[in-house]
Design a protein that fits this description.
CATH architecture of the domain at 65-179: 3-Layer(aba) Sandwich
Shape: globular
Largest sheet: 5 strands, parallel
CATH superfamily of the domain at 65-179: HAD superfamily/HAD-like
CATH topology of the domain at 65-179: Rossmann fold
Structural class: alpha/beta
Number of strands: 5
Strand content: 5-15%
Helix content: 25-40%
Strand order of the largest sheet: 3-2-1-4-5
Order of helices and strands: HHEHHEHEHEHEH
Radius of gyration: 15 Å
Number of helices: 8
Distance between the termini: 26 Å
């Protein structure tokens, strides 16, 4: 098995139209959105402007991860805890990813506490009662978080959640190496 895996797209059915995806005008507790990160009509306004303004910047990580508007990244809580500076890593990832979420096998409150502790501002998280796999599988073509490439950045024991949801998997160690993110020594 290689560092990245892609699940067979035919193995998981498309999410139902009522899959619980958040509409731009109705926030839910499993999705978060920063002020200024989007307009009420669902457009990403300032967020896209930032991504596009860095498009011409020479960055060695771009070829590894994609370009804006083509990628959604889900950082697992376990992987985030391995990073020296999760906030810096997430902000850095916004240069090449259109959407970034945080998922984990913990309560919504624990995910929010982690995000607050490191000043993360994810576009989505999984909510209480929704497993990370269920949340990721719900991000299909009808979702505002859908992208050409969907990637889970996680630890070795989290590979199956990505494969089950039909997402690509990248080990946190490989992602950190390519993106120059520092890992904690412990």
């Amino acid at each position: 098995m290689t560092e990245t895996d892609s699940a067979n797209p035919d193995s998981d059915p498309e999410p139902e139209p009522d899959s619980g995806e958040r509409r731009a005008d109705s926030p839910s507790d499993s999705d978060t959105r920063a002020a200024g990160r989007g307009d009420s009509d669902g457009s990403r306004g300032a967020r896209n402007h930032h991504a596009r303004s860095t498009a011409g910047v020479k960055d060695s990580t771009r070829s590894s991860f994609g370009s804006p508007d083509s990628m959604t990244i889900a950082l697992t809580l376990q992987a985030g805890r391995r990073l020296e500076s999760p906030g810096t890593a997430v902000e850095n990832a916004r240069m090449w990813a259109d959407w970034i979420g945080v998922v984990g096998e913990v309560s919504t409150q624990r995910l929010k506490e982690f995000c607050d502790e490191f000043s993360l501002n994810p576009d989505f998280i999984n909510g209480t009662g929704t497993s990370p796999t269920e949340r990721l599988a719900s991000i299909g073509e009808g979702s505002m978080f859908h992208a050409e490439r969907t990637v889970v950045v996680g630890t070795p024991d989290e590979r199956s959640l990505a494969v089950t949801a039909g997402w690509e998997f990248i080990l946190i160690t490989k992602a950190a190496s390519k993106a120059a993110w520092e890992l904690r020594s412990n």
